[in-house]
């Protein structure tokens, strides 16, 4: 059963306007009750944009990916165009696996490719009743629509890259003098800008929270200059191990954060391991936690979750129980 979250939709972006136009055209070509552009994240199929005429589906609706028609279509267990899903055992299986299955009599699904992550998601449609088999003749037009959407995705990435470059110039005034990373004010500005992109385009994003171990001991035993060298080494290691679009910031005396735009949840463990290895190579011991922005949440909420995970890591490394 779908879950629906209220995602703010302010002035439509060129990407949203373009996709909405394509979905409306598709509804004219193949008048199913709902046409959707969806992306896949952490076993959920999340609706990016929708043209709905009966199901009540909107941007931010999330479906169970494992019990979807689309995952079976991609595995070639069912056709891309199914005028009558009763004739497709795999799609009947998907409905039977859901405790409260929606009324689906016909289905269309076409994969959408993304240059960076290979598969972006699925352009799909459904209708409560079966439709005429003549709809299969529209396959080429639907595939042409997929090509247009893939072009819009590439264009959106280019626009996002330009926006981030402009933001980086603005954030130069908010650098931490010791580490060359952003300071807390720069972090908050970057977080706000990325949160808006996530809201506009239903994008994933990750956060990593880092707290250096034993900085107080170093300051007490070796002096503050040694502590500063440790902090500087940590900042350099984190910058070197991060992508160009990532945001690295020093949030406090021994606290750092890394913002990971357009990063799905399943990428985060590997990224955290890479950051930890980079710190260790620089001679820095640190506790690390991470979290992904959820479709129902926000980047500030993800930061709170990442902080909690970081403190849990610190307790585990010290061998002390939690609260």
From TrEMBL:
Residues 145-172 form a coiled coil. One of its GO terms (molecular function) is diguanylate cyclase activity. It catalyses: 2 GTP = 3',3'-c-di-GMP + 2 diphosphate. The keyword Coiled coil applies. Residues 203-323 form the GGDEF domain. GO terms for cellular component: plasma membrane. The keyword Metal-binding does not apply. Its EC number is 2.7.7.65. InterPro entries: Diguanylate_Cyclase, GAF, GAF-like_dom_sf, GGDEF_dom, Nucleotide_cyclase, Rev_trsase/Diguanyl_cyclase. Keywords: Coiled coil. One of its GO terms (biological process) is negative regulation of bacterial-type flagellum-dependent cell motility. Gene3D superfamilies: 3.30.450.40, 3.30.70.270. It is an enzyme of class 2 (transferase). PANTHER family: DIGUANYLATE CYCLASE DGCM-RELATED, REGULATORY COMPONENTS OF SENSORY TRANSDUCTION SYSTEM. This is diguanylate cyclase. It comes from Thioalkalivibrio versutus. The lineage of its organism: Bacteria, Pseudomonadati, Pseudomonadota, Gammaproteobacteria, Chromatiales.
